[in-house]
Amino acid sequence: MTAEIIVVTSGKGGVGKTTTSASLATGLAMAGKKVAVIDFDVGLRNLDLIMGCERRVVYDFVNVVHGEATLKQSLIKDKRYDNLYVLAASQTRDKDALTQEGVEKVLEGLSEEGFDYVVCDSPAGIEKGAHLAMYFADHAVVVVNPEVSSVRDSDRILGLLASKTRRAEKGEPPITQHLLLTRYNPARVAIGEMLSVKDVEEILGIEVVGVIPESENVLTASNNGIPVIVDANSQAGQAYSDTVARILGEERPLRFVDVPKKGFLQRVFGG
Amino acid sequence: MGILDFLKRKPEATASVARERLRIIVAQERSTRGAPDYLPMMRNELLEVIKKYVHVDLDAININFERDSGHEILELSVTLPEGKQAAKGDNKDEAKTG
Questions:
Q1: If you count residue pairs, one on A and one on B, with CB atoms under 8 Å apart, how many are there?
Q2: Which tens digit of pLDDT belongs to each residue from A211-251?
Q3: Is residue A260 within 8 angstroms of chain B, CB to CB?
Q4: Is A259 part of any domain?
Q5: d(CA A196, CA A190)
Q6: Residue A32 lies in a domain
Q7: List of E strands, A97-226
Q8: How far apart are CA B50 and CA B44, in angstroms?
Q9: Do A191 and B33 touch (CB under 8 A)?
Q10: Could you tell me which residue ranges the CobQ/CobB/MinD/ParA nucleotide binding domain spans (chain A) (predicted)?
Q11: Is residue A264 within 8 angstroms of chain B, CB to CB?
């Protein structure tokens, strides 16, 4: 049994890749899958902070690639879920420290260890790190914000996923592409200040797999080092849970994409 | 819309502007996706050459790159302006009258 490889990518930085990787990996683990989540951002390690395991990093991804540590030594077990592991990015090495062969070896090792899913948290940009993160993927989650530069970059990334990956090069069935719209503000969409779900879907020609509302809980979660999906009371957490369920094949309607109906007093006085 | 909302400055509905701009740029970038990197430069150089003879602007030159199984097609089309506006000819006329 080989592990399913999911890349979380976007092109543009700061759109929510690491937040999404952390919640996606945690959500899959909550569904009972054995999951590893890998930080591909060599030199700018951050996934460990979002996952809350930054003080337990001993060996990292590059150490494994260079044979300085075994996979088992380097995988950090999550403190909440036994079947969830984090592989941190290296902080010190240059970005050429990763090679295609090295990455392939690590992914094969994870398959042999019985992992069901490997989530690859891609760095921003379209350089080597981003290329390696997507190269071996079976599924891609393209994170996009309802904002011009992010939408344009996503289109670029969708093109690369369809041409510059192992599946494309070998003529295998293409990567399953999932578009995830994050930082969505229904109130601003309603007054025409922000691109809508439909706008983004039409421009990119692909349906969304989920819409994560802009939420203060995301910052709170990252402050605490707890993936926001764990916060079942937050809208963002619930939206991520829906997204994970959809990626696992379940059908769920989109939530939190419309402005909540206002009460009588709010309608009279605004607000 | 509440009473108090009338007092607030109304923000512009700019999402439609974003949508139209994205539609155009995404379509344009998709048409040249996978094409060689030299295409934009070649387009500019071709424009310089064509400009010596005819007044055209950048939009008049359309370069299409297609990849079929086994072979690649580079398609170039130049839309010439209507009527006779040959650059050289114009200059000669001006020289005579001036």
A1: 59
A2: 999 999 999 999 999 999 999 999 999 999 999 999 999 99
A3: no
A4: no
A5: 8
A6: yes
A7: 117-121, 139-144, 176-184, 208-213
A8: 10
A9: no
A10: 6-228
A11: no
Burial class (CB in 10 A: 0-12, 13-18, 19+), A50: buried
A126: in domain = yes
Amino acid at A157: I
3-class state of residue B63 by DSSP? strand
Predicted confidence (pLDDT) per residue in B15-74, tens digit: 999 999 999 999 888 877 767 778 778 878 888 888 888 888 777 777 777 777 777 788
Specify the CATH number for the domain of residue A120: 3.40.50.300
For A145-171, b/e burial (b = at least 16 CB within 10 A) is bbbbebbbbbbbbbebbbeebbbeeee
Gap from A265 CA to chain B (nearest CA, Å): 9
d(CA A141, CA A24): 10
Are the Cβ atoms of A152 and B25 closer than 8 angstroms? yes
Give domain status of residue A16, yes or no.
Answer: yes
Cβ proximity of A119 and A18 under 8 Å:
no
Identify the DSSP state of A1.
Answer: -
Q: Is B23 near chain A, with CB under 8 Å?
A: yes
Length of chain B: 98
Residues from chain A that touch B9, judged by Cβ atoms under 8 A, are: none
The token pair at A229 is: 């999906």
The pTM assigned to this predicted structure is: 0.82
Alpha helices by DSSP H, B2-86: 15-31, 39-51
Structural domains counted in chain A: 1
Tell me whether B21 touches chain A (CB under 8 Å): yes
* Complex-level ipTM: 0.86
Q: Select from A98, A89, A110, A152 the least CA-distant residue to A6.
A: A110
> What's the rounded Cα separation, in Å, for the pair A42 and A237?
28
**A38 three-state secondary structure:** strand
Q: What is the mean pLDDT of residues A107-136?
A: 96
Percent of chain A with pLDDT over 90: 92
* A56/A53 Cα distance (integer angstroms): 5
Domain annotation for chain B: domains and CATH numbers: 19-79 (3.30.1070.10)
